Amino acid sequence: MTTPPPQGQNPYAQGQQPYDQVPGQAPYPPQQGFPQQPGYPQAPGQPGFPQQAAAPYSPVPPQQPKRKNWKLIRSIIIVVIVAGFAIGGYIASRDDAKTASVGDCMHRGNSSDTDPDLEVVDCGSAKAQYTVLAKIKGSFTQSSADIKCTAKAKDYQYTYTETGDGDNFLLCLKDK
């Protein structure tokens, strides 16, 4: 059986002194830090404790630097790819009718009369089909092209006109 708590003053209430204590005196003697237990090493890096000189662990290797230049490398790769396409397009277009001049030999890439895909080839190659007799700048209809080629190259057999892209010209051609 338990006894009920005493009635009246609470000995643990704040502002009141315990029964057997003299006013102005602390209820318990002041306490100091606990001394280090023998046989147990002190944990390094704990707050309030001094650091030990060396830990019995192997050293941690330094962290590898992060790639901060990834965006730069990616941009350079994109520029190289775009430049490759531009250079490839330029090289592919070097041999077309725009670059032809008088005396060059031409090869017809397909059988279309509206877009024969003429390209400049070496005159000694088996691909050479036509020789350029005249190249005249400007826009021409079929009838005006025939008149111009008759005036510039009397023995022409074919005309080729190209318009658009700012390069409008006429080629007067004959079989090789």
Structure description:
This protein is an alpha+beta fold and 176 residues long. Helix content is 20%, strand content 16%. It is built from 2 helices and 5 strands. The chain has a 5-stranded antiparallel beta sheet, covered by helices on one side. The N and C termini lie far apart (131 Å).
Q: How are the elements arranged and paired?
A:
Layout: H1 70-93, E1 105-108, E2 118-121, E3 130-137, H2 142-152, E4 158-162, E5 169-175
Antiparallel strand pairs: 1-2, 1-3, 3-5, 4-5
Tell me the span between the first and last alpha carbons.
131 Å
What do the pLDDT scores average to? 75
Give me the count of strands.
5
What portion of residues is helical?
10-25%
- Main β-sheet description: 5 strands, antiparallel
Give Rg in angstroms. Answer: 50 Å
Strand order of the largest sheet: 2-1-3-5-4
Number of helical regions: 2
Structural class by helix and strand composition: alpha+beta
Strand content: 15-25%
Contiguous runs where pLDDT drops below 50 for at least 5 residues: none
Structure summarized in a few sentences:
By secondary structure, the chain is α+β, with helices and mostly antiparallel strands. It contains two helices and five strands; from the N terminus they run H-E-E-E-H-E-E.
Provide key terms for this protein.
176 residues, alpha+beta, 5-stranded antiparallel β-sheet, 2 helices, rod-shaped
